[in-house]
């Protein structure tokens, strides 16, 4: 009886194509996961390194709660207006009678503008709608319209909301366009054959199908505005007490700051934006089921 050699077990080798994801994974680990864990851990630590809930309790002081409330209102207003204008623009390009040559420049501009934020965006709006901005001075000298006398201030609630619209509207266009393209022509033809008007088609067919995508995009825009930091600080400075500015005041390193309270505020921002993103992903999945 001959001894049969044991079967050779094939070793599983990681495909070389996965190596292409290594730089991306390293980037995510260093600049997303590690800072997030630092914030979460720091929110429950004392300066000496011990565990405490005092930082979380500090979030419920009047000034911090007011800053969260102002940030939520700005995020809600910019998201609602951005969704409305962006939806109408995308619908005009995809379903309307606009020339097709308009779509490519619009989508290109939306891709650039949706990522245009920070100091350049703040400077652009100050130079346009600030106290000595181009539009402000032009309206005052040519038409006698004084925006400041009418109550408009770029360093206010509505000033920051209008500034956020510069990247909120393009982001809405980019996300809602594929959903509008997913509306089938035969759905509209079937509705028309049954005697439905254009208003009835949109109210009873199109909008119910698009509603999860619209609501999900609203959640994403809300998270996008709530987490905007550089634009708010560069534009308003300390004149508007929103969460990013209050957070910056805690972690900038002066003797009056409390870095661990800043960690707790950042942790609260992570929770709010995280919930909004989870809602967006869930509703996006539901809308894609309809559009397939």
From TrEMBL:
Lipid bilayer topology: Multi-pass membrane protein
Any one GO BP annotation for this protein: transmembrane transport
Subcellular locations according to the entry: Cell membrane
Main subcellular location: membrane
CDD domains: TM_PBP2
GO cellular component terms, semicolon-separated: plasma membrane
Domain ABC transmembrane type-1: start-end pairs: 68-282
SUPFAM superfamilies according to UniProt: MetI-like
Domain of life of the source: Bacteria
Claim: Transmembrane is one of the keywords in the record: yes
Keyword Membrane assigned: yes
Similarity field: Belongs to the binding-protein-dependent transport system permease family. CysTW subfamily.
PANTHER family: INNER MEMBRANE ABC TRANSPORTER PERMEASE PROTEIN YDCU-RELATED, INNER MEMBRANE ABC TRANSPORTER PERMEASE PROTEIN YDCU-RELATED-RELATED
Protein's recorded name: ABC transporter permease subunit
